[in-house]
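Standup, Tuesday
Yesterday: got the pipeline producing structure tokens again.
Today: sanity-check two examples.
Blockers: none.

Example 1:
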Amino acid sequence: MGYERWAHVDIDLTAIAKNVRALKGLTRPGTLFMAVVKADGYGHGALPVARAALAAGADRLGVATVEEALELREAGVTAPVQLLSEPPASSVDLLLESDIVPTVTTRGFADALGRAAASRGVRARYHLKIDTGMNRIGVAAGDAPAFAAALTEFSALTLEGVFTHFATADVPGDWDFENQLTRFSAVLDRMRKEGIDPGIVHAANSSATILRPDSHFDMVRCGISIYGLHPSSATRELVDLTPAMSVRARVTLVKRIGMGEGVSYGLTWRAAAPTTVATLPLGYADGVHRVLSNSMSVLVKGERCPQIGRICMDQLMVEIARGVDVREGDEAVIIGTQGAASITLDELAGLAGTINYELACALGMRMPRVYTT
């Protein structure tokens, strides 16, 4: 194009690979590893992340929607791709055509999948989701053995796996986690006693993968951790993860303003003395949430510079520290390291009152991504 936007996201694919290997190192030999790349790889780019994770030893990929799965298939990814929730019944032909493994939670979807597979003369793999207490999706734990048995009526369906999802895996010693794990184990025992092979059993998300080896079963599902972000403070000392995302911009304008002058919409910040203000070409449409206005910092010339005034849709302003010579085109770091200083996604998430997952997804929505390997 001959054009470079002055705000972008850097993604270190070497860090993705390193994190996958570190997480796999927490599991027993033979334990399968699912890399969760839904939401466009948590804002990091699903396809590049998928390729890096598979090359580092991931066995399969997890996504949320049919569209996400098809994107991987159309790009040539041949590894197993699994939908982590049940899609609409109208998608069954696409799933079979592209060899996408769905989750089943209702008889209606199972019927549609089984009939479509039979009409094609193929067998369709599926995973049964069991609700053990999160109360989001899944077959109720008490009903799961009978539900699985009923699906054996469909000769074209193959139960490849059974799974659940923990609501509080990030809280060490939590009673609800223990209750979910106990319920899940009891369901598995009942299925086996009734002659139903659950196949690949999986339950552990990133938190449980790191904190609870007894929940690993046959496969772990890691999402946020493969991107180098910890799911909770409890995991920080247990595995060394390297953040893969940094966010950088260039200064578009430098100006001096006088004492008492305000900055941005509503003039919510005013200069206590004559000061230098730099404008950066990114804002809340790029994932820098407006709630961070007047609370976050940006690195410029290795110095922490406070963001001032309300963050706009496409721009934000920072106050430049006294004595720092800043000019148009100089680099500013929103997430990452500059010199000896660093700003993390966790820091911004704390200021915004949210989680690192949400900010990572948002920051990858509009800005171009630059990949390093």
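Example 2:
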Amino acid sequence: MKKTTLDDIIGLKYTKLGFFPEAKNKMIQLKAANIRLERKSQKLQAILDGISDVMVIMSLNFTVITVNRLFSEVFNCNQPEGKTCFEIFTNRTTPCPDCPVTQSLEDGQVCRQTRVYTIKDKKRQFEVSVSPMTDTHGKIFRFILLMRDVTREKAYQESYYYSTKMATVGLLAAGVAHEINNPLTSIHGFSEGLKRRLPRLKECLENNPGTEDLAEDFDEYIDIIITECNRCRDIVKNLLTFSPRKRIDFSRVDLADMVTDVIKLLHFRLKQEAGVTIELGIPADIPKIHGNAPEIKQVLLNIICNAIDAVEGQGRLSIYVEVKKKWLVLSVQDNGYGIAEQDIKRLFDPFFTTKPPGKGTGIGLSTCYNIIQQHQGRILVDSEPDKGSVFHICFPLEEKDTDE
């Protein structure tokens, strides 16, 4: 079918009279201008898509006008145009109380904030920058919103700061531990000496009526002193794990065997905690890891004991091992009282504990963290109050033990 032209619409008579040559030229000019405008729009969209940050252009009423390609990839929203920013980012029906767009509108300046959004059930941090756009009269009519995902960067920063803090604590702990060790050794030694002399003391007191209980008191007090000295010795030993060590003997160790050994060590305590059940999910063919067996046992013992404490005599513990890419992950899960969100960030800080006074020193988990760091591993915690906790201990595998 022949394409309809302007001549067909106007008619041959009027076309020959030359009444509409100007309209025809205008149509040609408009068509060329439309092509140029479309090319500019495509070029502008290509520039927006080339920006490595999420970019959004918004109106004054928080409505999204246009976005770049990265926006849809990050927020999993294919057609955001026409929706409000608070509807997309936070699933709200009203603007956020501390909205950077509102602040930028009030100040007329660029507003920068760090905000946390939940994407696919995971919290991610973004550095948000809102810049107002003004017309020829200097009046704000739109906003440019730039969002940079800094979740991994923040995690690396926290890891660096924590490593620096732990190094400082290590130097301090080493000095304190050595200073405490000397008088502690003397106290322990003299207490043992007194204990050896107790039989002679009993003989001397037998001939003095009314002094029979003194020997028993001395025996009890000396036993308490020796017990507390041994407790302090263990604390000092844990403190020394913070100090830099020149050499640690590593070998190929079987994680399943170590879990079995730790469960055997806890046999007596588990008999007392009759309401606690332990479920094991450890495959028989898990690869071996490169590490120091006594130190890994210390980590497992601490994590499992904490899980037993968390269920308070009535609950379930699950210990299972999985291979995830280049990591062997041992997880200890409990259905206890859980950990508050504000405490999780401080959980591995030296001398921080969520246990009541007299129940914990706050050294156990920080020692575990230090040991796993020396094994080039990681400890991850996932917990909610009243819903239990799970500790993931990740050990790196040798390349020949696993494939990507």
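Quick observation on example 2: The chain has three domains: 12-153, 155-240, 251-401. The CA atoms of residues 346 and 352 lie 7 Å apart.
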